[in-house]
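Why run this: before we spend reagent on co-expression, it is cheaper to look at a predicted model of the complex and decide which construct boundaries make sense. The entries below are exactly what would go into the expression plan.
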Amino acid sequence: MQDATPDNGQWNGHWHGPPPWQGPAGQQDDVPSWVHHTRRWRNRGDGQPLRRQRDDRVMGGVAAGIAAWRGFNPTTVRVVFAVAALITAGWAVPFYVIAWLIIPAQGEETTIASRARHDSRGIAIALALASLLVVFLSLAGALNDGVIEKYGWAQVVSVPVLALIWRNASEDEQAGLRRLVLPLDGRGATGKAARRASRLRIAGSVVLLGAGLGELLTIHGGTQLLAPLGGFLFVTAGLVLLLGPWWLRIARDLMVERQARARAEERADIAAHMHDSVLQTLALIQRRAEDPQAVVQLARAQERDLRSWLFEGRAPGDADASSFAEGVREIQRDVEAVHGVPVEVVTVADCPIDEHLAALLAAAREATVNAAKWSGAGVISVFAEVEPDKVNVAVRDRGKGFDPAAVPDDRKGVAESIRGRMSRHGGEATVQSAPGEGTKVTLTMVRTARSGPAGRASTGAEGTRR
Amino acid sequence: MSTSAAAQAQARPAGPPRVVLVDDHGLFRSGVRAELGPRVEVIGEAGDVGPAIELIEQLLPDVVLLDVHLPGGGGHAVITEVKKEHPDIKFLALSASDAPEDVIAVIRAGARGYVTKTISTDDLADAIKRVADGDAVFSHRLAGFVLDAFASAPSPGDVKPSFDPELDQLTTREREVLRLIAQGYTYKEIARDLFISGKTVESHVSSVLRKLQLSSRHQLTRWAAERRLT
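The model came back. C-alpha cells follow.
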C-alpha cells in the first residue's frame, strides 16, 4: 500500500525532490500511466476488467477496485460496504473477503484463490480455525440469547479465508498486510518504553474484552434489561483500546497516500508543461544554432513565458491584456518578437484599462518600437507606474539619440503621433534626447475614472500562483 | 542605517574584495569565478546552506554572493545564521527568480542588495565592490518591487502601531531615486539628473534598504512570511 507506483519507480521518492521546474528532464514523455488512470476513474469507469486496486486500498482494495471499475467514489463504496455489513448481521464481511480471494490484484495474472489451492497447510489451518469458531459460537449460543451468535456465524467463513489470504497473497501485498497489523501486536514499536506501553495496552484491552464478553455470555433471556449495556461498554472500550492505534494508522496512511497522489499529478502537469514549452524551445534553439539573433529571440520569448507561468500563475498563450501592467508586458513581448531587441520592463502597481490608458499604451508601444528601430541600443527599458491619480510610463534607450531641434518639420510624424495621441486624451508626452546620449520618452496620463484603488497585479498575482 | 556610516568609515584593507560564492549550480559558480577574474578574490564556494554557513564563518569574507534559492533552507537561512555571529559580513543576493517575496525575504534577512543573474560581469564586479564598501545595491527589478510594496499610503490597519511610522513610507526623493534605478540608470546618471551628489544617491538607497528591512508594513511582512511552497 505504500508503493503506489511500482511500475514507475523513478517517481518514487521524488516528491520532496528538486523544485518542480528543475524536475527530471527526459521523463516528460512518460507521464505515469497510472496518473491518467487515476484521473479517469474519478470520472467514469475505466473499462478495464475488475481488479483490486493497489494504490488506494484500505484492506484488500476490493472497494477501490469496484469504484474504479464502475466509476464510483471509493469512499461511497466503502460506506455502502460498512452499512451492508451492519444490516446483514455481518454477512457482507465474508462477501468482501471472498471477493478479495477471487479477484486478481491490479497488475497480477492469478487470483489468491488459485495459489491457495496448492497450499495444503493453509487449508488445514483454515479448516481448524473454522471448526474452532463453530465450537465457540455454539457454546456462546447456548449461554446467551444470540448477540454474539448473530454476528458471529458469518465470520466462520471470513476468518479462514483471511488466513488463506494471509498465507497466499503476493509478496508486495503481504508486506502491506504486515504493515497493516503491525501496530496490533506492538512489534512495530521501537524503544523499551514504547514496547511496554504497547504490552500494557494489549493487556488492558484483553481484560476489558474478557469482562465484557463474560458479562454478555452470562446473561440469559434478557431478564436484566440494563446489564447488556455494561457488557457492550466493556467490549467497545476493549476494542477501541486494542484497535485504536491501528485505525489511526490506516487513516493516516490513506491521507499520506492521497497527498502523494495529488503531488504526483501536479508533477505530471509540470512535466507536461515543460515538455510543451521549454523542451520545444531548446530543440528549436539547437536547430537554429547558427543564427544567434534567432536564438536570443527564442530564449527571451521562452524566458518570458516561463516567468509568467512560474511567478504569475498564468498559462502561456493567454495574453489577454486586461490590466495596464499586462498591456505593458504585451508591448515587451511584441517588440522583442518583431524587432529582436530585449526590452526590460518594470511595472509598479496596476489598474484596469480604460480608453485613456489604452491610448497611453498605444503611445508607449510607438515609443518602444521607435527605440527598437532607430536607436541601435542593445536593450530598451520600459518603466510603468500606476499612481492613485496618474499613470507614468518612461521608455528609455542608451542608443544613438538625436537632436530634437534638428529634426525637420516633415519628419516629426512619429513624435507627433505620440504627442498628439497623448494630448487628445488629456495626457502629456516629453521627449528628451541628445546625440550619443540615448532617448527618453516620458508619458503621463491623469486617471479620470478611478476604477477602484490601484491594485497590485504585479504582486497581486500571488493569489493565483501555484 | 547608523551602522552603515560606520561600516563605510571602517576602511576595508585595500585590494580586491574577498568573496565567497554560494550557489547550488556548480556550473554557475565556476562561470562567475572565471568571469570576475582578478577584479574580486573568490576565496571559497559552497552549494548548500549548511556547508555555506561553515565556510563563511571559517573564511570571514568581505562579501558573500548568495543565490536566493538554495537547497536546505534558501538564501535567507544562511544570512540569518551568519549574521548572529558575524554581523559585519555583507551579503549580495543573486537570483534568476523574480518572485517578489523571495527577494524581499533575503533583503529582510539582511542582504545589502539584489541583482539578477542576467547582470553583466562589469556590473556584478561593481556591485560587489559597492556592497563591500557598505553601500546598498538595487537592481531595476528590486527597485520596482520596493516601489510596489510602498505604493499606497499605509492604512491604519496596515502597520503595527508600535512601529516608527517613518519606516513605513518612502520620501519623495527616495521615490525619485528608485524610479530612476527601475529605469536602468546608474547612480552617476541619477546624481546628474537630480542635481545631487553620488554620495547622496547612495545614502537614499541605503535609507530605502533600511526601511525595507525594518518596516512593519503589512505588505512586506506578508511577502517575507509567505514563502512559496515548492
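Chain A touches chain B at residues 18-20, 307, 310-311, 344, 346-349, 379, 381, 383, 385-388, 394, 396, 440, 453-454, 456, 458-459, 462, 465 (CB under 8 Å). Residues 1-43, 450-466 of chain A have pLDDT under 50 and may be disordered. Bring this page to Monday's planning discussion.
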